[in-house]
Design brief:
By secondary structure, the protein is of the alpha/beta class. It has 10 helices and 7 strands. It starts with 5 loop residues before the first strand and ends in an 8-residue tail after the last helix.
């Protein structure tokens, strides 16, 4: 992903909106950060200029942030949309991913964890809270997995398992005792073989194929 020039926070609670904007200033010091509190204002802001990154709450006074993400997926597919919410249930998670959200972060996480996850976007590491990754795996574990036709090597399976659990490439490299570049190469092969482009999609594809199991 290219440099962050314009970032939008869509959050109706003023104090939390300011907190997220301050977090983004630390994550992307050169970016222009704007904040709005409604779907209508977010739509106007996104129409006025290209937004590189949008952090979007789900419950907004005039509608759902999920609907805004779906609209952005159609009108501005280059905008990287991330849900930032308190909801960790299937009823909100899966519609958000289906609408085009490329990340899903829980507000309850520590500030430093959120900061690291946001900065990881520039390294090709879509932000997905570990608890959310586990919920995705649990959801699809309850369904009958399809035949594993992915063609992943044993090492690629190991990398996928760790990534699906929320670990980033540096963590994977350390845990498997390989270099970060090697971990990145394995992950690139995983994405290619599964025909996906984000961590959320890889997690879904892996769970459907029975390649990874959820943690209890």
């Amino acid at each position: 992903m290219g440099p962050m020039q314009h970032v939008l926070v869509v959050e109706d609670h003023p104090e939390l909106r300011e907190w997220l904007m301050a977090l983004l200033r630390d994550a992307f010091p050169s970016a222009e950060i704007a904040g709005v509190g409604t779907v209508e204002a977010a739509t106007r802001a996104a129409s006025a200029q290209v937004v590189n990154l949008a952090l979007v709450d789900i419950s907004l006074p005039d509608g759902s942030g999920i609907d805004f993400v779906a609209r952005m997926s159609e009108t501005s597919p280059s905008t990287y949309c991330v849900m930032v919410t308190i909801y960790d249930d299937d009823r909100h998670l899966f519609p958000a991913l289906q609408a085009g959200a490329r990340g899903y972060l829980l507000k309850e996480q520590p500030r430093e964890k959120l900061l690291s996850q946001l900065q990881g976007i520039l390294r090709g590491e879509p932000p997905l809270s570990p608890a959310i990754a586990r919920r995705v795996l649990s959801h699809f574990q309850r369904a009958r997995p399809v035949v594993d036709d992915s063609g992943l090597s044993e090492r690629e399976r190991e990398v996928l398992t760790l990534v699906a659990k929320g670990y980033n490439r540096s963590d994977v490299a350390r845990m498997l005792d390989i270099s970060v570049n090697t971990a990145a190469a394995h992950l690139k092969n995983v994405y290619r073989k599964l025909n996906v482009s984000t961590r959320a999609e890889a997690t879904l594809a892996a769970a459907r194929r029975g390649l990874v199991q959820s943690e209890e």
